[in-house]
Amino acid sequence: MRHIIIGAGPCGVVAAETLRKANPMADITLIGDEPVPPYSRMAIPYLLIENIGEEGTYLRSTEHYEKQNINYLNHRVSSVDADEKVLTLDDGSTLLYDKLLIASGSHPISPPIEGIDLPNVHSCWTLDDARQIAAIAKQGSNVVLMGAGFIGCIILEALVKRGVNLSVIEMGSRMVPRMLDEKAGGLLEKWCIEKGVNVLTSTKITAIKESGDAMEVETDGGKILKADLVISATGVRSNIAFLEGSGIDVKAGVVVDNKLQTNIANIYAAGDVAQAKDFSTGEYEVQAIQPTATDHGRIAALNMAGQSVEHHGSVNMNVLDTLGLISHSFGLWMGVEGGDSVEIYNPDAYKYMNLRFGIDEEEDVLVGASTLGMTQHIGVVRGLIESKIHLKEWKERLMQDPTRIMEAYLSSTQELDNVI
Amino acid sequence: MQKSLHLDPAKCTGCLQCEMACSYEKLGEFNPSRSLIKVFTFHEEGRFAPYTCTQCDEAWCMRTCPVDAITVDMATGAKLVADDKCVGCKVCTISCPFGTINYVQETGKVAKCDLCGGDPECAKACPTEAIVFIDSNAHGYDRMKAFAEKSLPSANAT
Fold this sequence. Notes:
heterodimer, A: FAD/NAD(P)-binding domain, FAD/NAD(P)-binding domain, Enolase-like, domain 1, five-stranded parallel β-sheet, 26 strands, B: alpha+beta, Alpha-Beta Plaits, 5 helices, 20% strand
């Protein structure tokens, strides 16, 4: 049985390992299109800080794939013929498969702005991007970061630590608008400004123009910023272009069912490319987050191996460290209409926490949360959301003191008086 | 026979000896705020509950780690964080549904219970047997652990 996995990010690698564990005899090929061993984009900020070298971003040791008898190919897949079960690669060669996993990930989008193609305008997505950024972002150089979303914020610290003069330009009214509300996003902005970053929210870049050796970045507010480097971090989209004409059902991403199978038997999709079930909304959405990528990879692989494992939906969640201020969001962090919520807001201490509860029969169930400046036991928020535990009297206690989430979890899952 | 930490809130007096022992073992100083086992207080019930990583089979932390920094100690079953590999991205801290792997600002890395290599100091320090290190199958501990994992829909893999 020939198993092919398109994409060698965390999702593809976890899928390959899961397949190997489930079926020691399976023929497994992992295809990645970058000329480096499989690596993690999550580690790129730490590469830019120079805490680690490039090998520190590798998902596994380089011998790992050979040891696991996983055939790693460095190619780009150009097309999929689902009728003949054959892939065509960038060099024109073909590969036959019996079961296929599409884990081709996502790519940064490029906003339609004059000058976006200039040589010193880069995304921060691949190792190659990181090398180019590292070559220009030096002590005293002027850097403009376009977009204060998740990726923009996660590389902010690296840029500041490299000693650049940094400006961040965000179209939305606050930083990380898809993860933090006005209060938390506002605190994060204040934090960044205090650390010497020039933050401009509700601002659009209208043009990037060459100016001698450097560039000038023009905003809709009429500002002109000098830049040696512009980093574009305005969001990502699923890598689905190569599937055109394959008959595989594609919307924002590859649409999958509750086994992560596509509309075509024996073809699965997982990770950033998959439009799969969101735990909280029940809708099929592209989440494009690391925990979901690895969960998807494992579940898709088990189904490919012939086990029947259902995907119940992934909890959308994020953790972000922006210049040392750590923020989180989980599930329905913006709340549900009619649901209770409780908030801690302490701007002087840069602390924020919001817990969101459900409605009707889920009136005492945690459905979402966001935090700023808190780290301890944070994972239990996921546990409470995903297990849909009825908090009973603990809901009222959390409404009084939302920091007691761990106590609420322990009380609800362990009988404190019980002697086992 | 693999052993597990068995935590019994009914026997815990909240003396915090476990937190002292853990921090002393890991850091060489008494610093309960950095202990990897925590005693939670329930003043409404007048109860205490010691809690730390159950070394769960699902190992959400290990699976989601983007740089292979978390591995299984084959001798004890503990999931170990390799400090030289952890980059401090914190993805494991949101993935663990039990909240038992935490980011440590001082080190820039995450920390979790490693069972002290098979001889946990917290269990030795506990004067009331609220924390004992025993055969995993004994006292239904495994059933309790399995129950906690099964309450999570994403815990469905073998």
